[in-house]
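I have a small job for you when you get a moment. Can you supply me with one protein entry, sequence and fold together? It will help me judge whether the discrete encoding reads sensibly. Write everything out right here, beneath this request:
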Amino acid sequence: MTGWDISPFERDGLRVAPLRPPVLPEAPRQGEDPSSCDACRDRGDGIWFNGGWRLTRITGVGVPLVLMLYPREHYDMADLPDELAAELGVLSTHIVRHVQALPNISRAHVYRIGDGGAHLHIWFFARPEGQTQLRGSWMPVWDDLLPEYPADVAEADAAIVADALVASLGGRRSAAGESRCG
């Protein structure tokens, strides 16, 4: 993959790390117990909310904008009720549309990893227009390597996305009517 034109690493000098043997049982993810779940504890934080979801802006990133979507209740992807699963599809599409409508943004990448936390969290990364080297699966790696993007610009862009969500899907900019996790 270092031979790809989008790789953030030079081809020479890199070696593949050996695959370690499996460790079983696996260590629990953060928030397996809802009483210790950071996403539940912070459920009032965000830039946009509705009855089932909240959207936050991730700070200290290198790309123009990184947003994270969480269900308001403590669910992971596999136990998400069908109604919220259907809403996730529509909501994700609207977030992508609004991020890609921002000036100087070409694409919105959507990621769900799920190994770090038991509370479902969906990542949205904004790829700047013309920065094709940031395409594809290397985007989160590039994000960690780039200098921090100006916070005031990212905050203004996040507000535009949140306001566009209110206009296109409803919801609100505050945590009023917050639901409980658990």
Summary: The mean pLDDT is 92. The longest helix spans residues 82-100. The beta strands are 48-49, 53-57, 65-71, 105-111, 122-128.
